[in-house]
Inverse folding.
């Protein structure tokens, strides 16, 4: 009888370590799942394609994602206050048009164009802040409206045509200016062998991280995003801080537009259109990095790097461009599956049961003690 009880108690004694292992695995998946997917994809392309390992390819990858990453930083700031800036792509496109208009049409130097573009971005951010803070329009609806207004304004400024050096203007004259060599260096030049656009991306990432994570203003933004009413009762000027987030987002979007203008070298009227989805994607994906569950700068930067790795790797492998979006979206979903579903309370128990089952299936089997019945002689 005693032997039977001890055999029944044995599984219970070994169950506790299995639960602990399940919790550890779950926490590791939540915290490092996205990073694991990124590193795994990088190693796959690096080992299967020799050209992917070249430093020039890696720098070009970072250069490619710099615009989306900078726009994503702006989206991250607005997400920190509980909002969402859907106008960043349009603001970047406006920056391209303003830069081209300033240098090509008005024959100004690159410095003037840079100041004009940043001012345009700040004005766009102020418009968003006016609609959201003063007019009380929901963030997403207000910024969507702003997006369409900016896109239309951009076309009106250039009579619906792209701006390039030597073009014939609507009055029949030839445009007197061109993109200056100094301005073109923003994306085409290097600093100590590193593309200047990558340097700008890295510098803005560090500045945004310090602002959000290491300053009082950043902590206030997070507090407003978590509970705006409690923040207001605590004496925080919620409206002013939300306005600040949208103005900074507009400025960052305009800086992305500067890089984009330097990259294409003309005032393309369609510039910036495709940047919105990537910017929003990297900001949303970034919330899952390291299990933060909230907008964070390093997560946004890593999300941009993941998109760059996928795009560059698939291009090197010769995958048609029209299939890359599908693969890119699938990998992003996979990276999110590693984090968000596992964090859901109703799935935690199932996840731990799965880990317990997996652990038990790999545990060496031991012979169970038997008890012989005196009455029947059976074992």
């Amino acid at each position: 009888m005693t032997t039977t009880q001890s055999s029944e108690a044995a599984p219970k004694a070994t169950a506790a370590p299995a639960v602990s292992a399940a919790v550890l695995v779950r926490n590791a998946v939540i915290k490092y799942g996205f990073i694991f997917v990124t590193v795994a994809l990088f190693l796959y392309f690096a080992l299967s394609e020799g050209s992917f390992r070249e430093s020039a390819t890696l720098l070009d990858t970072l250069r490619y994602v710099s615009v989306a990453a900078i726009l994503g930083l702006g989206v991250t700031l607005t997400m920190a206050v509980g909002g969402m800036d859907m106008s960043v792509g349009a603001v970047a496109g406006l920056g391209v048009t303003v830069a081209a208009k300033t240098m090509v049409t008005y024959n100004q130097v690159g410095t003037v164009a840079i100041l004009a573009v940043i001012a345009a971005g700040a004005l766009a951010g102020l418009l968003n802040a006016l609609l959201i803070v003063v007019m009380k329009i929901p963030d997403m609806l207000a910024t969507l409206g702003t997006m369409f207004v900016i896109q239309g304004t951009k076309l009106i400024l250039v009579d619906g045509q792209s701006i390039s050096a030597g073009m014939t203007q609507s009055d029949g004259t030839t445009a007197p200016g061109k993109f200056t060599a100094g301005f073109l260096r923003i994306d085409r030049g290097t600093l100590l062998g590193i593309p200047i656009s990558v340097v700008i991306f890295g510098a803005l990432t560090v500045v945004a991280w310090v602002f959000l994570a290491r300053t009082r203003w950043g902590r206030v933004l997070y507090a407003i995003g978590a509970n705006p009413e409690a923040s207001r009762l605590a004496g925080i000027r919620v409206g002013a801080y939300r306005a600040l987030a949208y103005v900074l987002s507009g400025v960052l979007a305009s800086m992305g537009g500067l890089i984009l203008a330097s990259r294409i070298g003309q005032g393309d009227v369609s510039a910036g259109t495709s940047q919105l989805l990537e910017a929003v994607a990297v900001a949303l994906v970034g919330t899952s990095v390291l299990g933060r569950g909230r907008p964070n700068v390093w997560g946004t930067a890593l999300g941009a790097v993941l998109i760059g790795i996928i795009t560059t790797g698939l291009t090197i492998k010769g995958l048609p461009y029209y299939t890359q979006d599908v693969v890119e979206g699938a990998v992003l979903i996979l990276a999110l599956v590693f984090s968000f579903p596992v964090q859901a309370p109703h799935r935690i128990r199932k996840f731990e049961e799965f880990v317990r089952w997996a652990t038990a299936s790999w545990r060496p089997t031991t012979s169970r003690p038997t008890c012989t019945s005196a009455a029947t002689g059976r074992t």
